[in-house]
Amino acid sequence: MDLQLLFENDEKTTALFIAEEEALLTVRFSGAVEHESYKAILEKLYKAITVYKCRKIVYNLKDLTYTDMQSRTWYATNFLPRIIKTFGLVFRTAIIQSTNEDENLSVEFLTKVGSNLGFKDSIRSFKTWEEAIHWLSLKDNIPAGSKK
Predict the structure, then answer these.
(1) Please, which residues have CB within 8 angstroms of residue 140's CB and are 6 or more apart in sequence?
(2) Is the pTM above the cut of 0.70?
(3) What InterPro entries does its record include (predicted)?
(4) In this predicted structure, what is the pLDDT of residue 142?
(5) d(CA 79, CA 104)
(6) How far apart are CA 92 and CA 79, in angstroms?
(7) How far is residue 138's CA from residue 57's CA, in Å, rounded to a whole number?
(8) CB 114 within 8 A of CB 80
(9) What is the pLDDT of residues 95-125, one digit of tens each?
(10) Which domains, ranges and CATH numbers included, belong to the chain?
C-alpha cells in the first residue's frame, strides 16, 4: 500500500495520508493533541473525503497519549453529524487503538456515539495496522458508492 502524506502539523502530532489505489484515508494522532490541531486535521479529513471520494478511513491512534474533552465533544456534536449530513453513512472506519487506556475509553464512547448516529457495523477497533487494513479490504466491508 502506497501511503502519501497530504498534511502534517508543525508539532507532528497529527497527519493525514491517502492511499488512492485503495480509496483510503488515514488520520494519525501522536502524543498529546491540542484542540486546535485536533479540529484542523479533521477539517482536512473532511476536505479530503470531498476531493478524493474515499469512504474507507483509518484513525491511527497507536501513539496518541492525550486529547481533551473539548475535542471529543466537538467530534461527537459537530464533526460526525456534518459528515453524515454531507456524505451519508457509506463509510468503513477502522481505529487502531492507542496504547493509552484512557484514550481507548474515549474512543469506545465515540464509537458508541457513531453507532447511535447510524454507523452500526461500519466502525471497528484493532490493535494493529495489518488487522485494520485486512478488515477494510474484505469485500463485504467495501462501502457502496466508494471507488473500490
Answers:
(1) none
(2) yes
(3) SpoIIAA-like_sf
(4) 54
(5) 19
(6) 16
(7) 14
(8) yes
(9) 999 999 999 898 888 888 888 888 777 889 9
(10) 4-141 (3.30.750.24)
